[in-house]
Amino acid sequence: MRIPIIAGNWKMNKNKKDTKKFIEDFEALIGDTEVEVVICPPFTSLDSASQMLKNSSVKLGAQNMSWEDHGAFTGEVSPEMLLEQQVEFVIIGHSERRQIFSETDDRINKKVLKALEKELRPILCVGETLEEREGEKAFEVVKNQLVQGLKNISGEDASKVVVAYEPVWAIGTGKTATPEDANEMAAFIRNTIKELYTEEISEEMIIQYGGSVKPGNVEEIMNQTDIDGALVGGASLEAKDFIEIVNF
Ligand code: PEP
User: Fold this and answer.
1) Is the CB of 166 under 6 A from ligand 1?
2) Which value does ipTM take for this structure?
């Protein structure tokens, strides 16, 4: 049975004070949940967050990392540095990283490989642009991102990867894919994993949907057969909204 993972991607929001406030508010609201909950604050808040979450079921994720261990890589953060902050998940290949920071599939693959080597669980983001969807290229684009992103990754490691399907046109726009369209792509992703690995691995894989998930639409999305979680941006910034998503 797949246990859903709901992850909040705070992007470049919240300083340490805001992080502390969110965690205090969220911890006061969260009870027993049937899902795994992850928050992904900016690097500068990871230390405070990890101290506050020591005895919590809420897990920590980072929004990016380097594929290198250490050295002359100005501005980068290594996997060991994340592990030191009790980080367990790392978002890799978010569309903002791909588009604004020109991350290529090759670099994304290096990061996924490195994360797995260090026993961090990568949340590998894939998804098509509006132009690609309108040009009927969505499935081809997503398949290519998966094949490239998972290059040289063994079956054993592949089952630890979380795949987040995030259509670029739905991120931060208020537009959501219909639950049926999102599920169609999630099923396609699962089938691609089956082709690349085995049916067993494809059935174990957690596939999230991301793109304007909010309290009002999460239930319908989570009720889809092939969607096992959500990667949430804007609606993960307020504890009162994120708790509604977690308790869908
Ligand atoms: C995201 O940042 O991954 C995301 C899905 O953002 P939003 O929920 O704001 O669309």
Assistant:
1) yes
2) 0.97
